[in-house]
Design goal:
6-stranded mixed sheet; alpha/beta; 29% strand; flat; Rossmann fold
């Protein structure tokens, strides 16, 4: 009888301790209404990425409309900072002549939001990544010009590296605004193990 009571009591204790973990949502504090986007730092050898990325974030904040954008950190409730850490362009597929047909563009950034009033970092994503796999537009154009049948090609079949970058800036900026407003769990970084050295 004691064994049965002991087992029942143990089961009860285990069940009472096994509650569902439900963390409190980490939403943007109410006092943050004005945001300053500090110019992005570019730690790659690709020229001009920082301006395009900064502009994409600014455009997305304006498009979303839930936060006001200000021109200096002194006027802001929150400051968004970022760094472009890596820019990797990998060839994926080749044609019979060993000319690259498809690429993978991988941009890794580090982004954070600082609450100026409390001087606290609200969130940091150390490896926020943007990936775009695309067919080389010059390869597509050469196929089209050499085709005697006229072919049925559309713009989704190929793009330039610049067009792929623009898609990545758009995705990353949307993720940054989403992370800022909706909080933890809405967007997350890549694992440190996944990021190449």
């Amino acid at each position: 009888m004691k064994k049965i009571l002991f087992c029942a009591f143990s089961a009860f204790l285990l069940m009472s301790c096994a509650g569902i973990y439900d963390p409190a949502p980490q939403l943007l504090p109410e006092h943050i209404r004005k945001v300053y986007v500090k110019p992005i730092i570019n730690n790659t050898n690709q020229y001009g990425l920082e301006a395009k990325f900064t502009n994409a974030i600014v455009d997305e904040i304006l498009r979303d409309g839930r936060l006001s954008l200000v021109n200096s950190a002194d006027e802001a409730d929150g400051v968004l900072t970022g760094t472009i850490k890596k820019y990797i362009l990998q060839p994926l597929t080749y044609d019979a002549n060993m000319v690259t047909e498809q690429y993978k563009l991988w941009i890794i950034t580090s982004v954070s939001l600082v609450d100026r009033e409390n001087n606290v970092t609200l969130w940091t994503e150390p490896n926020l990544e943007g990936i775009q796999i695309y067919l080389d537009a010059t390869k597509r154009r050469s196929s089209m010009s050499s085709s005697s049948m006229g072919g049925n090609f559309d713009d989704s079949e190929g793009m330039t590296e610049e067009e792929a970058r623009e898609l990545i800036w758009e995705k990353l900026s949307r993720n940054i605004v989403k992370r800022t407003i909706k909080g933890f769990g809405s967007v997350s970084s890549a694992s440190e193990k996944k990021v190449p050295n």
